[in-house]
Write a structure and sequence with these properties.
Herpes Virus-1; four-stranded antiparallel beta sheet; 21 strands; Znf_RING/FYVE/PHD
């Protein structure tokens, strides 16, 4: 593998594999990069095909021996970036990093490589490691990469994975963690990565009442069932006043009808709150207690009915909102995936067909020239 810098105009740095070994004279002796311009130290000054690092030219291109102090035998070539590490800042003298020989900045000359010679070399597609077997001229590499089916793209379903264009349809259909799958309970399309969460909360998932062990319930019906389940433990409605009785619905209803069981609780509450005074006759106090109990019972029943009504409305609104949100996510996911996949495949096939036509025309021209 060779690293190119500045050879392909629109690609600052590219790593390619040449079919044939490239000449060492095209490479920086330190970093190995192939670039159009290299610098080397020379014991002579010239302005023919070379230029001094300081930009000056002498004697109309005639070679002129440098003064003895500037003579050197270092013949290594360096790219511009490596040269900057030898002559740091305003330094004019440095050492070759390969042979430690002293070199002088004013003695460095620019050697320009014929870019066309580099571009005419045959290379493998840079996606060879992913399966592309295309070989082509380096000058054709840029156009080929725009349509190569083995190039990496981001999954349109936004799973975060990079996949080759060729394998994109298979990835989106069978591999992507964000592909659409069907819920085993409601059979609606959902995103795979949220499948477990959805199925655990799916309204159509069968559930079992933990009190009566009814197995024919759906999750959506569980709350209503628990409101009516006769075996679900309930508290006496006078628990705010201190009653600690609890039992099944039937047991609580029978308990609440026995007002004598609550008489001590009522009297204690009334005396503590000062609702009635102890200077009243016992019969009047008893009447007060009965009236308070009746009022509390009526108010409690009215409040419970109101709470149940509001709870049902809230539950209905939450369920409606959840279903609408699931449908919206499903629709957006499927639409984006289908459109992105279709556009990508059509565009790539079109480009591949154009390249095939060009290669076919070129092959026919070569065959015709051979026959002539």
């Amino acid at each position: 593998m060779e690293t190119l810098r500045g050879i392909i105009p629109t690609i600052p740095t590219e790593t390619v594999e040449f079919i044939k070994t490239v000449p060492q004279k095209w490479k920086c002796d330190k970093c190995g990069v192939i670039t159009g311009t290299l610098w080397r130290s020379s014991p002579v000054i010239t302005n023919g095909h070379h230029r001094l690092l300081n930009g000056s030219n002498i004697n109309g291109g005639l070679l002129t021996p440098s003064p003895s102090p500037l003579s050197t035998n270092c013949v290594h070539r360096f790219c511009g970036q490596c040269l900057d590490t030898i002559f740091i800042g305003i330094q004019t003298v440095g050492k070759c990093p390969l042979d430690s020989m002293t070199i002088y900045k004013k003695q460095m000359i620019e050697s320009i490589t014929n870019i066309d010679s580099i571009l005419s070399q045959e290379v493998y597609c840079t996606h060879k490691g992913r399966g592309c077997r295309k070989t082509l001229l380096l000058s054709e590499l840029e156009n080929h990469l725009k349509s190569c089916l083995y190039g990496l793209v981001h999954c349109p379903l936004k799973c975060g994975q990079g996949v080759t264009i060729k394998s994109l349809p298979i990835h989106m259909a069978t591999e992507c963690p964000r592909r659409a799958v069907s819920c085993i309970y409601c059979e609606e399309d959902i995103v795979l990565e949220s499948k477990n969460e959805h199925e655990n909360q799916c309204p159509k998932k069968p559930v079992i009442c933990s009190y009566c062990k009814n197995k024919s319930l759906l999750r959506a019906d569980l709350k209503d069932h628990l409101e009516k389940c006769e075996l679900k433990p309930r508290n006496c409605r006078l628990i705010p006043l201190g009653c600690k009785f609890s039992g099944t619905q039937t047991e609580v209803e029978r308990h609440e009808k026995d007002w004598t069981a609550h008489m001590d609780i009522f009297v204690k509450h009334i005396l503590q709150t000062g609702t009635i005074t102890q200077d009243k006759p016992p019969r009047n106090r008893l009447a007060d207690v009965v009236n308070i109990v009746k009022n509390l019972n009526a108010e409690n029943a009215e409040l419970m009915d109101r709470v149940n009504e509001l709870s049902l409305k809230v539950e209905h609104l939450e369920e409606t909102n959840r279903r609408l949100n699931d449908r919206l996510i499903k629709f957006e996911t499927i639409q984006k995936a289908d459109m992105a996949s279709i556009r990508t495949v059509i565009e790539l096939m079109r480009k591949e067909l154009e390249n095939f036509k060009i290669d076919y025309s070129r092959t026919r021209e070569d065959d015709e020239e051979s026959e002539v």
